[in-house]
Amino acid sequence: MSEEITVQQPTEGLRSDKMRNTPTGKLLFQMSLPAIISMFVQALYNIVDSIFVSNITTILTEYNGTKLGDDSFTAVSVAFPMTFLVTALAIGIGVGVNAYIARKLGEGQRDKANQAARTAIFLAICVWLVLLILAFTVSRPFCSLFVTSGNATDIDYVVEQASLYTTMYLACSIGLLIEITCERILQSTGNMKVPMTSQLIGALVNIGLDALFILSFNWGVFGAILATVIGQWCAAAFVLCVFIFRKQDVSISFKGFRFKGEYFSNIIRIGLPAFLMNAMSSVITILLNGMLRDGNGLFVLSAYFKVQSFIFMPIFGLMQGAMPILSYNYGANEKKRFDHTFRLSLYVSLAIMVVGTVLFQTIPQYIMQILTQDKPIIDDGVYAFRIISISFVPAALSIVLINMLQSINRGIASLLMSLSRQLIILLPVAYLFNYLWGLTGIWFCYPIAEIVSVVAFIPVVVRDYRRQFEYKKREADRLKQ
Length: 481
Known about the structure:
Elements: H1 18-21, H2 24-54, H3 68-106, H4 110-135, H5 139-144, H6 155-171, H7 174-188, H8 193-216, H9 220-245, H10 261-292, H11 297-331, H12 335-362, H13 364-368, H14 375-388, H15 392-407, H16 411-424, H17 426-437, H18 439-442, H19 445-480
Helix pairs in contact: 2-8, 2-11, 3-4, 3-6, 3-7, 3-10, 3-11, 4-6, 4-7, 6-9, 7-8, 7-9, 8-9, 10-15, 10-16, 10-17, 11-12, 11-14, 11-15, 12-14, 12-15, 15-16, 15-19, 16-19, 17-19
């Protein structure tokens, strides 16, 4: 059922003590604001990077025709699911170690928190070695699957640039893996400023190098991916320096490290739903790209993912702040603080999504014009944005519920909910509606999947929440005897 709980007296003088003592509203604000700011900057980087790429036409004027910018954007769009997969792997490790460390600190078991942090770094390195092999074996065959005369003016150019982008991203992914893992370790202790700073460094370096490599050096898509990986390595270097030169609540030193299945299994069990939630986005994008590759749909889908990050990234930042608070107070059996944090995170998430829905319903044409001036693509994008944005509010509820399930060690339930909203329901509906109505129908798969999954899983969430805190209460009563 649940892992065996051993509650010790919390260690005094740790940064993480604030998750027990600081008022929850103030604490959630302090923990979430740096993450929200950094995630917003990441969203800004994504769109700025896309603007540079989509406007390559004005830079490389020797190319005949006006479609080079669109072809370059399509190349990056084809590579996008693989980059999303790398991020999903990093987030899976990060979420798993974040929740586990926060819970162990709440229980006063600092040694186990240290061992979990070191195990997470080891896992990140192992994942990178696998991605390094994939970089030089699957990149070109993968990219070739999605490029046709229906979505590319110059097929060879798009395949070549997409393959280059994918290969470099996978081969250099150690920077992103280490960055995200270390950031989540720090967040589990209540340290949100260093993760915010590292993400700001990565994003700002990326944007600056985009301008240099694309505008000044005329390196095109190669300049975009080079700027991306250098930014990730700079962010990783910064956060590693913090661990090396400043004492933290947990240590990532490998001195005396021994790999143990206990920490591996806990990190994987907790982080697997987060990985699948993000990986399913990659898989779904790949499958949808296959369905949409003969028209404007692939461009529109990629444009949507770029601009929707301005809406979703703040919520993911909020969840980064809420997760360690929820996990710590679950570990400490502080139910009132847990409940208050959950309600606040839910209210803020819903408010953000309402604003996002209004924007996507009222000004989608202006959003599309940021990335292209092709009127048929803009028209298709306006229609798609208005349909997909119906899913924003139920998506916010799903994300908050999944985050809460992870914090109380209900990995299977959160996994099933993630699979439901991103695979089990969405994919069959997408295939059916694409078959019946094509591009005008396929976008409805998003709101249908979100609404059905959240309605189906609310009773499951309520049941698991009650069971877990009843179990914690029984354990606390037993220890008092």
